């Protein structure tokens, strides 16, 4: 009981720190006519991270008081059941559509009953599954020695911040970039249920301001508790949960603090954002693979979520990097409209190879370019981090080395 109380106190302290940080960051957005116009366009669909965090923590407190959830890391069967049920529901929903369209035979009522029964079961056991997954991640973090952000206060009993996340539809993100340069000048979280038509309307309204815009669905957010999307596989859900936890961890390290200043608008350092995202992606993939191997007995290195080329003759990653390089050159030469026509032509070409991208524009590259390992990035940071990881004796030493840095140039110089 004592450990349970300490863990709960740590969660509340972490939540308070993250909420205060969120208030500060949200209050520091630069003010201008353009900023105001963008805010007005997004306002009908705005998603409040602060309000959601308060509501989610209230739910968790109620759950803790009235229904303490399981935290046995060895109870993997409950987790497997949740994800198996979700897959069955998805298959049944597809079958239901086909039955209603007369494409296959089936009993609509029976299928709807199955969907309802599986969904209800998942609603009942999801809190236990979240507790078990958190305990599994917690156990592997202890094994790697990544316990808390303060090197002189390592405690084998307590992981800080406490691993805490929910699996539900995350909000969307509106990304705004200038047309003549690929850079993120504004990010706004939008409603979880925004429709495709509403996305298009927001993007078109911002385009009318002379900007490039894209609305994307996020896989996770480092709120507290963290968001993890409810549409992903078990493997990738673990990876996203670890990645969002690691962002919380980095917030208390020099590298993450610099990223916080960037997000708050005190400084503009897009390279530090790329470093944070690249480091979090590498560390989460490595830890998540250990979690999956330890508790689900299928060792593998997890993908970062982007599609792998379907055929040897077409390399999606190489093609996207080539597109990005060409677009950068066109924009540097002031050929904005030519760059936009080129991106649309390439978008259609990618679709012909089986890679559908709803909108390929400056905002797309501004968003995905932040992730140094993504096809939309031309940053040397990702390769530099890989070199340094190979030189490090352990994941712990690698994390401590990189998270103590405050400049992307340090990584590039150290990897030479």
Summarize this, please?
The protein is mostly helical and 416 residues long. 60% of the residues lie in helices and 6% in strands.
Commentary on this structure:
The chain has helices spanning 2-26, 33-42, 49-66, 76-100, 108-144, 196-207, 234-250, 254-264, 270-296, 316-332, 336-352, 362-368, 381-391, 395-403, 408-415; strands spanning 165-167, 172-178, 186-190, 211-217, 220-221, 226-228. It is mainly alpha-helical. The protein has a domain at 166-415. The protein has a 3-stranded mixed sheet with strand order 1-6-5. It is globular and about 60 Å long. Residues 1-6, 22-31 and 299-311 have low confidence and may be disordered.
Proportion in β-strands: 5-15%
- The gyration radius over C-alpha positions equals 22 Å
Q: How much helicity do the residues have? A: 55-70%
Average pLDDT figure: 84
Main features:
single chain, 416 residues, mainly alpha, three-stranded mixed beta sheet, 6 strands, 60% helix, 6% strand, disordered N terminus
Fold topology:
Blueprint: H1 2-26, H2 33-42, H3 49-66, H4 76-100, H5 108-144, E1 165-167, E2 172-178, E3 186-190, H6 196-207, E4 211-217, E5 220-221, E6 226-228, H7 234-250, H8 254-264, H9 270-296, H10 316-332, H11 336-352, H12 362-368, H13 381-391, H14 395-403, H15 408-415
Helix pairs in contact: 1-3, 4-5, 5-9, 7-8, 7-9, 8-9, 9-13, 10-11, 13-15
């Amino acid at each position: 009981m004592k450990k349970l109380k300490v863990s709960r106190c740590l969660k509340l302290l972490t939540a308070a720190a993250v909420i205060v940080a969120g208030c500060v960051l949200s209050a520091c957005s630069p003010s201008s006519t353009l900023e105001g116009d963008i805010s007005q366009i997004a306002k009908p669909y705005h998603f409040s991270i602060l309000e959601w965090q308060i509501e989610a923590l209230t739910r968790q407190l109620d759950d803790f008081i009235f229904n303490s959830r399981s935290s046995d890391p060895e109870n993997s069967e409950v987790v497997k059941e949740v994800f198996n049920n979700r897959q069955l529901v998805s298959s049944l929903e597809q079958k239901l559509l086909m039955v209603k369209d007369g494409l296959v035979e089936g009993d609509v009522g029976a299928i709807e009953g199955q969907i309802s029964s599986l969904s209800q079961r998942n609603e009942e056991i999801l809190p236990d599954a979240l507790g078990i997954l958190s305990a599994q991640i917690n156990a592997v973090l202890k094994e790697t020695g990544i316990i808390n952000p303060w090197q002189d206060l390592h405690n084998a009993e307590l992981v800080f911040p406490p691993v805490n996340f929910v699996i539900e539809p995350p909000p969307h993100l509106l990304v705004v970039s200038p047309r003549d340069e690929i850079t993120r000048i504004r990010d706004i979280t939008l409603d979880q249920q925004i429709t495709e038509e509403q996305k298009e309307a927001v993007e078109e309204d911002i385009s009318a301001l002379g900007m490039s815009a894209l609305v994307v669905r996020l896989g996770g957010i480092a709120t507290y508790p963290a968001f993890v999307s409810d549409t992903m596989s078990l493997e990738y859900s673990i990876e996203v949960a670890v990645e969002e936890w690691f962002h919380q961890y980095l917030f208390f390290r020099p590298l993450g603090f610099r990223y916080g200043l960037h997000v708050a608008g005190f400084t503009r350092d897009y390279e530090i954002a790329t470093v944070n995202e690249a480091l979090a992606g590498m560390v989460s993939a490595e830890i998540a693979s250990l979690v999956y191997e330890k508790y689900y007995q299928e060792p593998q290195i997890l993908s970062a979520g982007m599609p792998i080329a379907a055929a040897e003759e077409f390399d999606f990653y190489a093609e996207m990097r080539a597109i990005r390089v060409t677009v950068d050159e066109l924009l540097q030469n002031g050929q904005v409209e030519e760059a936009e026509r080129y991106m649309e032509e390439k978008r259609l070409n990618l679709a012909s190879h089986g890679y559908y991208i709803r909108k390929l524009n400056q905002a797309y590259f501004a968003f995905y370019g932040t992730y140094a390992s993504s096809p939309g990035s031309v940053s040397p940071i990702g390769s530099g981090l890989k070199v340094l990881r190979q030189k490090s004796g352990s994941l712990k030493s690698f994390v401590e080395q990189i998270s103590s840095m405050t400049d992307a140039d340090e990584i590039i110089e150290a990897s030479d």
